[in-house]
Amino acid sequence: MSRSFAHFLRHTTIISIQVIILAFAYGFLGAILYYGSIYPSERVSILWKNHPEELTMVVTLIATVLSVTTSTLFTISVKEALRHRMSRPISLVQLSAGVALSKGTAILRPEYIQLTTLTLFVFGVLRLLTAGWTTLLTPTPFSLPINMQGYELDITGTAFAAELLQEYENQGFADIRDDAFEVLDIGGMLSGIAAAGQTYGLPGTFNFNGVKYNISTQGIVPTIEEYSGSHAIPGPNGTRLGFSGGNVTVNTRPMPGNRTSLPLPQGFSRNYSMLQQGLTANVSCWPISNNTQYALNMNSTIVYSNVAADNDSIAGLDLWSIVGNCGANTSVKQEYVTMLNASGDMASSSGFLPSVVCPGPTAMTQTSTNLSQTYTSFMILSQGFNKYRFLNASVCEVTPWFTTVRANYSNDLISSEYISPTPFGPENILLLSFIAGVAKFQSISSQGLMSSTIGDTLYSIYSSTTTTSINDNLGNQTQVYNELEEYWRGVVEFSATFLRSGFMAEGSYSSGIPANLQSTVNGTVYISTIGWTSSWRSATYLLAIIPSTIITILTFACALYSIFKHRVIGPHSMRQTPFMSLWHPLPGIWI
In a 3-state reduction of DSSP, which class is residue 295? Predict the structure, then answer.
């Protein structure tokens, strides 16, 4: 092998190795930018997460090997270039700069600012090689965002109104099955309590069908499988208005995109942010005395009396007939039974808080075929007695809204907030009647022989959030009204969640939700994993490979210079050059 060919092969090898290393850097960066994120398998991810010190050591070792290889090849090419440069006269300061470059050091000669700057620049770039490779190769924890798409039950249109009408015709609202009555009773009450308490900072988590909601449901059902709650199969009569718990179908899946060929990682954790259809209500309460078109008329009749009863027995029962004047020459009647003491009076320790819903759900259903009278809200007339006397005769207007809800699924809890409300239309009269029916059912079932769940809720929240007695504030009922408004809002939101759950329960539709009953669901899942992502580190990665790029370019230039000079001058030119001819004196340089 000739010396010229060996010389050429040596420099070609240097150039090739440098190019391969740099190509690896740019290829790795390109893959990150193209795919958006690169992450290892689940097993490797867990290994990296649990052993961060060992991971740092391995990455640093690889970065050191690559940087040492790059810098070594650079110094070799500089030495070869300097050897060929010495075939012509060269100043001592130029020679010292070349020697400094070949050793990876710098010179400090202010009077030769260009050479000083060059050596300092190369010196700094060489020192950044390891840091650059470490930055590029070190995997970091990040959240991988993936689009989610799917559908759920649409309860806003005429298609669902027809479904609900069919259910009404099959069984009627008064004939909802026994299990469903229990769900409506307990679920509605707990949802109302949680919603009322959160207004004044009380913590509240509402559980329904195995799903945990933060404060209230906002009228939604889970659209994420791992948050869907119960997986039990509902019975033959356990769907729709007969729903009493069970698997609610989920029709949402991730949409990774065209460039994501990598399988989605399970990740260390997953958080979801979904836009879906919800339902809430605007509730406003005020004293009846401020509005004469509403009134509560009460009559009671003793239906049972036992004057010889002891302290542990019922001395008497009082049947109350409550007639609510709902305005527009309409009235609604509601009956309650309370316990009497031996004196024939209601005990001072007991409480009575009747409520009348008007117009009633039956009246609304009857108007569904007569569009000349359309309801978009309903009223709840209430008044407290004995220990609930803090609530004067009051009226609450409940106006349900359809909403777009941003639901956040995190840590086994669903937190929601509505974004935009849409009022009910004429086609929603049957849905409104169902909601009013749930409110009526709550108002009846909450009142027992001696106490009311609604009254106890108002009393307890007030007492736990203020330092004064609720009975000392009979003239200022602002907080009481706020609590009552939030309570009924929670009941309304739960009624929508119950309805969606029943119609989306497994078995409700044999072939899934029909297309005309589907509402689009969109959102994002954030998968916590470890690896490399371009979402916020692309600029950092680009800066990290700049030192390797510069050194590769300089190595390439030096190698080409040596190859060119070797061909022009020849392999024996250095032997024919007298030593003194290598010295070209410069002003101010003495030896």
Answer: strand
Q: 0.70 exceeded by the pTM?
A: yes
Q: Is the pLDDT of residue 468 over 80?
A: no
Tell me the CA distances in angstroms from 289 to 93, 296, 358, 399, one per residue in order. 102, 11, 18, 21
Which helix or strand (DSSP H or E) is residue 282 part of? strand 269-287
- Per residue in 317-346, pLDDT tens? 999 999 988 877 778 889 999 998 877 788
Tell whether omega for the bond before 141 is within 30 degrees of 0, i.e. cis: no
Six token digits for residue 257 = 């995109």
What is the residue-wise DSSP string for 479-545?
Answer: HHHHHHHHHHHHHHHHHHHHHHHHHHBTTSSTTSS-GGGEEEEEEEEEEEEEEEESTTTHHHHHHHT
Burial class (CB in 10 A: 0-12, 13-18, 19+), 178: exposed
Taking a C-beta distance cutoff of 8 angstroms, is the pair 202, 478 a contact? no
Contact indicator for 26, 532 with CB cutoff of 8 Å: no
Q: Residue 125: exposed, middle, or buried by beta-carbon count in 10 A (0-12, 13-18, 19+)?
A: buried
**pLDDT, position 206:** 86
Calculate the alpha carbon distances from 97 to 104, 119, 326, 482, 589 in Å: 10, 7, 99, 81, 14
Positive or negative CA dihedral for 207, 213, 219, 225? negative
C-alpha dihedral sign at 243, 245, 247, 248: positive
**Residue 416 pLDDT class (50, 70, 90 cuts):** very high
State how far the Cα of 493 lies from the Cα of 279, in Å rounded to an integer. 6
Q: How far apart are CA 449 and CA 346, in angstroms?
A: 10
Partners of 280 in the beta sheet? Answer: 401
pLDDT surpasses 50 at 578? no
CA atoms in the 13 A half-sphere facing the CB of 499: 30
Least confident piece of the model among 332-336, 400-404, 468-472, 497-501: 468-472
The predicted-structure confidence for 108-149, as pLDDT tens digits, reads as follows 888 889 989 988 999 999 999 999 999 999 999 999 999 999
Residue 332 near residue 359, CB atoms below 8 Å = yes
The strand pair at 385-386 and 351-352 is best described as antiparallel
Residue 500 CB neighbours (<10 A): 26
Residue 236, pLDDT above cutoff 60: yes
| Cβ atoms of 201 and 217 closer than 8 Å | no
Instruction: Kindly report the three-state secondary structure assignment for every residue of 86-150.
Output: CCCCECHHHHHHHHHHHHCCCCCCHHHHHHHHHHHHHHHHHHHHHHHHHHHHCCEEEEEEEEEEE
pLDDT digits (tens, 9 = 90+) for 473-501: 555 678 889 989 999 999 999 999 999 99
CA distance 504 to 173: 19
Read off the tokens for 130: 């390891």
In the numeric block, which tokens belong to residue 220? 């939604």
Are the CB atoms for 349 and 340 separated by under 8 Å? no
Residue 179 or 2, more confident: 2
